[in-house]
Amino acid sequence: MNLSGSRQTLGTGASLAATLQRELLIILRSPGDIVNPLMFYVIAVSLFPLGGQADAEWLSGIAAGVIWVTALLAVMLSMESLFRSDYEDGSLEQLLLSPQPLYFHLLVKVLGHWLLTGLPLVLLTPVLAMMLALPGEAYWPLLLGLLLGTPTLNLIGAIGMALTVGLKRSGVLLAVLVLPLSIPVLVFGSGMVQTTLNGLPYTGLAAVLGALLVMTVSLAPLAIGAALRISVN
Amino acid sequence: MWQWLYRLGSPKLFYDMTTGFLPWLTIVTYFLLIVGLVWGLGFVPPDYQMGDNFRIAYIHIPMSVGAMGIYAMMACMAAMHMIWNIKLADLVARSCAALGATYCALSLVTGSLWGKPTWGTYWIWDARLTSMLILLFVFIAIMALRSAYDSENSGSKAASVLTLVGVVNLPIIHYSVVWWNTLHQGDSILGVSSQSANPPEVWSPAFFVGLGLIGFFFQALIRRTRNEILLHERRSQWVQQLLTSKQLQE
Predict the structure, then answer these.
(1) How many CB atoms lie under 10 A from the CB of residue A29?
(2) A1: which of A33, A57, B15, B43 lies 20 to 30 Å off by Cα?
(3) Residues 76..135 of B with a Cβ closer than 8 Å to A: which?
(4) Is A207 on the interface with B (CB under 8 A)?
């Protein structure tokens, strides 16, 4: 887009801004990519009272686990839109060929994706937590955990998506690849709520989730880049 | 040293070297396994608490350690494949995945058979059991990813990337479940960490079985890798010659 006008190479900052803008525009123009994972999230969470029991005591016991597991699945379902259309129209190749560092491009791409899919999911969570009768003091640890955890899940999911984008059907395979690797985020995130409900401070677990986020931010783009080069090949 | 490593990367050399070596490895493996198993299952006195159940540990513990070791080896092979593009490393990694999944599954099965009489349940969401189960999932994921690709070359590269991602992630998964829930006892058969150290006659058979299972892994790995080599080099001259000479002998 912006690149076509000038012959000179863009600076890294400008090209990253362009990538972010492009990513946000693409997602905004296909609202289904934003809305469908959220709808999945709401519907799947509301299946638990229907399939299990509807009394508040039982629900509040499983609320944190249900919300975290469903959020994980919703994030994974939303990954499909991250590389798929870019792969099909060839712009992924252009991204890999561009002179600016691929690492930051990928990071920005995932950031844009998270802003429009992960963040709304976090913002929607209090409503679902209320429907599952989560005790009041557990709202902050749940939201903070999701805020730290969903970008990590997005980055891990992006590795899986990058590995499978060249395949015709990748849905179930993506789940098989990504779900085992997402377990630490799930354990610590849902653990934050449980420790709060047991009357203990959750800051330690939040710090671990933050550390996981820092680690995936620094390492995942390398794996995503290597995987994309294989897929585009 | 690098020269030697590079030469070993040639599938033909690997095939020729293992032809002479494999029968000896197999004999030693079965010797170790038979001695260790007969000794451990037949002659070691029963435990005063667990009775004969504890004998499952002679198979269970080497299987668990083996599964983790196999993953480490597969990761080294994946790194060699990614960095130096050594094709043989990928063939070895490919053979590792199926064997690792088998060791992992057998470790889980023997563990749950031991758990029923000892803990009173086949399965419990304990840290070690859980992380072993996740290791099995990762092995399966790597195999699934490899087989999903039509192009063999891309499949190998993708599986290598996933293997290396797993290396970073598996320790984190392990510690996440350790902090989450722990019931499994520490190392007991060697008595390193427990207060009541086991006498040598209890842990000696474990060394035989352990070495035997390592040997078994390597002989199975070499056999699988030799088959993979024949399959992948089937158009090359030396394989054609090998096959025709085999046919002439028969």
Answers:
(1) 8
(2) A33
(3) 82, 134
(4) no
Q: Are the C-beta atoms of A173 and B145 separated by less than 8 Å?
A: yes
Which sequence spans correspond to the domains of chain B?
56-194
> Within an 8 Å CB–CB cutoff, is residue B172 touching chain A?
yes
pLDDT digits (tens, 9 = 90+) for A114-124: 999 999 999 99
- Tens of pLDDT, residues A153-183: 999 999 999 999 988 877 789 999 999 999 9
ipTM of the complex: 0.84
Considering its fold, how many domains does chain A have in total? 1
> Residues A98, A232: contact at Cβ < 8 Å?
no
Domain-embedded: residue A4? no
Q: Determine, for residues B169 and A227 on separate chains, whether the beta-carbon distance falls below 8 Å.
A: no
Structural domain boundaries, residue A181: 12-232
A-B contacts at Cβ under 8 angstroms: 67
Whether B144 and chain A come into contact, CB under 8 Å, resolves to: yes
Contact B17, B238 (CB under 8 A): no
Can you give the pTM of this predicted structure? 0.86
Q: Does A183 touch chain B (CB under 8 A)?
A: yes
Closest-CA residue of A relative to B166 is A181
Q: What is the DSSP string of A49-93?
A: HHHS---HHHHHHHHHHHHHHHHHHHHHHHTHHHHHHHHHHTHHH
pLDDT, greater one: A215 or A9: A215
| Any B CB within 8 A of A101 CB | no
Position of tokens 């791409």? A109
Beta bridge partners of A94: none
Whether residue A1 is contained in a domain is answered as no
pLDDT at A1: 47
